[in-house]
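Entry 14. Structure prediction run on the chain below.
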Amino acid sequence: MISSLRGSVLYTAPSLVVIDVGGVGFSVFVPADVAHTAHVGTTIELHTSLIVRDDALTLYGFIEREELDVFSLLLGVTGVGPKSALGVISHLSVDQIATAVTNDDEKAFRKVSGIGPKTAKLIVVQLAGKLHAAPASGTTTANPEATAQLLEALVGLGWNESVADDAARRTVAEATAKEQNSVSLLLRRALASLGTARGGDRA
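Output returned:
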């Protein structure tokens, strides 16, 4: 079992990175924001899950261990395969997933491509009691560096600077201290909040 990988990024695609580990290149499917923030030549460390099928061995990787744990739980839901589970984690943070399950909010999952009403309901029902939303805490101190990095990432994805700046400031202000130290987690939060916006808000 390959439970983690650490190495230099050789290649990136919208949902894939190739990591050089000891001269061997591993293709790993990752959330879109991880692929976007990974740069060729930099070092990345991922918690991974090896999915074994009759015709393929496929690796899925996540920056945070909690994401891998939720990925594994999602795979246990009837009708949810690895790609759909990855889609959920690409669209929602771990806390957002836990909150949706706790609040019996199946609509949150229906926003994910490939997740229909029946599967969304099954996610809520079958994960009930297995996830716990983080307790509300006081407002964290805004991190200017994190805000600037998030703004740059959003503009790079096509959002106009005004919308991106507002989303970046709001996201960082609402983020936990742990999230403020991870552009990947911040980007996921921001994209989730911007998910209902349309092309008019893009550059």
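Residues 66-127 form a domain with the DNA polymerase; domain 1 fold (CATH 1.10.150.20).
Filed with the rest of this week's runs.
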